[in-house]
Design brief:
- There is one protein chain.
- This protein is mainly beta.
- The protein is built from 2 helices and 12 strands.
- The chain has 2 domains: about 45 residues; about 120 residues, Rieske [2Fe-2S] iron-sulphur domain (Rieske Iron-sulfur Protein).
- The N and C termini lie far apart (about 40 Å).
Length: about 200
């Protein structure tokens, strides 16, 4: 990792970037607003990850289960906790991690440093379990054992290096008191034609 984030200017840029990316997160209130409280029919909302550019992503929230996956107070810095989402079927393995105070796009918690991602490499489904790396300000998942892709967990799992060209699917989180809930996904899980197989 050669990017120098130690200067005030770079730190400012990094914080600005995380701030912009945080717009992807939904509050509980927004979630209810979009879902009409009880709606279960699948629909989408569009969220611009990079305002001013053509890049946007659909965050599929409505229709997803709201699943309790961890307690904030029980997460240890930089120690991922595994879970499955949005179901217990193939390729649903995922992890949630508190990144030691490093703010992230879509992060929740007082420091916006808690994020969750699917474990399957977006390239050809390589397993990323056990590959979490905290190195200075960097928070990485990878290298993938198959073709060495790595993903930046501070920036919605964008590809840092390797063969992959799509970001790692991010699990959208919601904090309710001490409870962390998974409430949706950003990106398509590898090997699925849609994330919600049973809908
Ligand atoms: S499957 Fe991970 S880089 Fe190819």
């Amino acid at each position: 990792m050669s990017t120098d984030t130690s200067t005030p200017r770079n730190k400012q840029k990094q914080e600005r970037s995380a701030e912009v990316h945080n717009k992807v997160m939904l509050t509980r209130r927004q979630f209810l607003l979009y879902s009409g409280s009880t709606a279960v029919a699948a629909s989408t909302i569009s969220i611009s990850l990079f305002p001013g550019s053509a890049q946007a992503a659909d965050a599929r929230v409505v229709g997803y289960p709201r699943k309790l996956i961890a307690k904030l107070s029980e997460l240890k810095d930089n120690v991922p906790v595994d879970f499955n989402y949005p179901d217990e079927l193939a390729n649903s393995s995922a992890m949630v991690v508190k990144m030691g105070g490093v703010q992230a796009g879509g992060g929740i918690g007082p420091k916006r440093d808690v994020v969750a991602f699917n474990y399957l490499c977006s390239h050809q489904g390589g397993p990323l379990q056990g590959s979490y790396l905290a190195d200075g300000p960097h928070r990485i998942l990878g290298q993938c054992p198959l073709h060495l892709s790595t993903y930046d967990l501070r920036r919605h799992g964008i590809v840092v290096s390797g063969q992959a060209f799509e970001s790692l699917p991010q699990v959208l989180l919601e904090l309710d008191g001490d409870n962390i809930y998974a409430v949706g996904m950003l990106g398509l899980i590898f090997g699925r034609h849609k994330n919600l197989l049973e809908s």
